[in-house]
Write a structure and sequence with these properties.
The complex is a heterodimer of chains A (136) and B (371).
Chain A lengths: L6 E5 L3 H13 L3 E5 L2 H11 L3 E5 L7 H11 L4 E6 L4 H9 L4 E4 L4 H20 L7
Parallel strand pairs in A: 1-2, 1-3, 3-4, 4-5
Helix pairs in contact in A: 2-3
Chain B lengths: L1 H6 L1 H9 L12 H25 L5 H6 L2 H84 L8 H31 L7 E5 H10 L2 H6 L3 E5 L5 E5 H17 L6 E8 L5 E8 L6 H4 L23 H11 L5 E4 L5 E8 L8 H4 L11
Parallel strand pairs in B: 2-4
Antiparallel strand pairs in B: 1-3, 4-5, 5-7, 6-7
Helix pairs in contact in B: 2-5, 3-5, 5-6, 6-11, 7-9, 9-11
Classes of the chains: A alpha/beta (136), B alpha+beta (371).
């Protein structure tokens, strides 16, 4: 049986950026779940337990860092990548300290995004084995 | 008389004070009261003398026969008037000083409030810049992302004309991205949110790395690059910040050099303190005297007219200045029209032992022609 592709949840309130991330990742063969807002993302994360969340930093409701905290609390095995247009070293350090994988500065090249995704998923693999997905 | 009085302003003001009612006001002008009391003893003394000599106070007919008595009687009044005049002059001066102080205070208050207004406007501007750069970058995500992905063939094969067109589009997205990044960096410096994060790194390696960014322009303009670099020179500074400083300085050197020109980077240990001295130079048109003081000012460009030949935001050197300021360093400029420009700055050496660096210094000094 072919192992299932990892599930990546993408959050961005900018629909075109979201569409691009979806197309890029979907085209690479990942299963991608696009969500247009952080609150919807939270409910999807607790339901679907994705291996990876890619989130914008600046969003209404919950910003990326708050989302990162909630994900790490509710679903610690889920990896989180943050994207931001206004990246500083301080924010990057903050992301790592809170348990995020990395912070990418927008607009990142598709190669950078895919590399970061691969690295995050590789790190996630040993944990995902014991990930109770509720599957038979 | 008028002329001589004009030459003695103190005397003139006292004489003028005799016309002021304030001079004769015993209740308000304490000088008048003081003068009057000061003059009283002489009158009392004359009465005592009269009592002593003639056995009673002087009578009316005697008073007029000896007019000295008039002096004794008027003495306190005269003293009161003269002292009062002095008091009037003093009061006038005090009032003038108070008025001046009030005016001064008012000016200071005006200045302070104007300064506050400016600060508020500056904060708003910084906020505005942050928002604008964010808003400019957001659409770039989709533009750059899709164009690049399509160009990389991720969404299917491309024809040659499609690839050609997309290559140009992607290159121009890169230009736009650089401009936005420059605005963002400048905004970060202006709002004081840029804080250097010093680490120890090899400046020679960084200079070589930064130079590779300019290889296309160096080749295109057939520039000669002369490097005088030690094999290694460790400094303690913010790597990203200094990389940006070198990028901006070299970008100017390349931009303002004519075809076939010479640019260079010299790296040396500063003679006194344990510091590294970096000089980025070109033999371009140089900077006229009157332009030099604005050189590190934001948005300023040597030729700000619409006919100017060189592009750019005018933020490059303001960013350089901001980053170096944050390092406690300054950029020294040495330039004259027609003889090129040298910009020099110093950075602290790392505290690690200098090891081989001193002995190897000079090994990379041969001119290194390129292009």
């Amino acid at each position: 049986m072919v192992p299932e592709q990892p599930l990546i949840l993408v959050v961005d309130d900018e629909s075109d950026s979201l569409a691009y991330l979806f197309d890029l990742l979907h085209n690479e063969g990942y299963r991608v779940l696009p969500t247009p807002g952080s609150l919807e993302a939270l409910s999807q994360i607790s339901k679907r337990k994705p291996q990876l969340v890619i989130s914008d930093l600046r969003m209404p409701d919950l910003d990326g860092l708050e989302l990162l905290d909630r994900v790490k609390r509710d679903s610690p095995q889920t990896r989180v990548l943050l994207l931001t247009a206004y990246g500083t070293q301080a924010i990057s350090d903050d992301v790592l300290r809170r348990g995020g994988e990395a912070m990418l500065v927008k607009p990142s090249s598709s190669r950078e995004i895919l590399r970061a995704v691969r690295r995050a998923l590789e790190a996630a693999r040993p944990i995902s084995k014991s990930n109770p997905r509720g599957e038979p | 008389l008028a002329a001589s009085l004009n030459r003695r302003p103190a005397l003139r003001s006292i004489l003028l004070a005799f016309r002021e009612p304030y001079t004769y006001d015993l209740r308000r002008n304490s000088f008048t009261l003081f003068g009057f009391i000061w003059g009283l003893p002489l009158s009392v003394f004359s009465i005592v003398v009269d009592l002593w000599v003639i056995g009673h106070p002087v009578r009316q007919e005697q008073f007029w026969r000896e007019p000295i008595h008039l002096v004794f009687v008027l003495h306190p009044i005269l003293f009161g008037i003269i002292f009062g005049a002095v008091g009037t002059v003093h009061a006038k001066q005090d009032r003038q000083i108070t008025n001046l102080l009030d005016e001064q205070r008012q000016h200071l208050e005006n200045l302070a409030s104007a300064n506050n207004e400016l600060k508020k406007v500056d904060e708003l501007k910084s906020q505005f810049m942050a928002n604008v750069t964010h808003e400019l970058k957001t659409p770039l995500v989709a533009i750059k992302g899709y164009n690049e992905s399509i160009l990389e063939g991720r969404f299917g094969p491309l024809t040659d004309p499609q690839r050609h067109g997309l290559t140009i589009a992607v290159r121009n997205v890169g230009r736009l991205e650089n401009l936005i990044r420059e605005l963002l960096e400048f905004e970060r410096i202006e709002s004081h949110s840029y804080l250097p994060r010093p680490t120890d790194f090899d400046l020679t390696a960084l200079v070589r790395l930064v130079l590779t960014n300019f290889q296309p322009q160096v080749d295109e303009k057939h520039l000669v690059v002369e490097l005088r670099l030690p094999r290694a020179l460790d400094v303690h500074a913010d790597y990203e910040g200094i990389r940006r400083v070198l990028l901006n300085l070299l970008s100017n050197a390349v931009k303002f050099s004519e075809k076939g020109g010479v640019i260079g980077v010299d790296l040396a240990e500063a003679p006194e303190a344990p510091q590294a001295e970096v000089t980025v130079w070109d033999r371009g048109p140089g900077i006229p005297e009157d332009s030099r003081r604005f050189l590190f000012t934001r948005f300023w460009q040597g030729d700000g007219t619409s006919r100017r030949r060189h592009g750019g935001t005018g933020l490059g050197l303001a960013i350089v200045k901001g980053i170096l300021d944050a390092h406690g360093s300054t950029a020294e400029l040495d330039s004259a029209p027609g003889s090129g420009t040298r910009i020099r700055f110093r950075l602290p050496r790392s505290s690690a032992p200098p090891s081989l660096q001193e002995s190897t210094y000079g090994s990379g000094t041969a001119p290194h022609p390129r292009g």
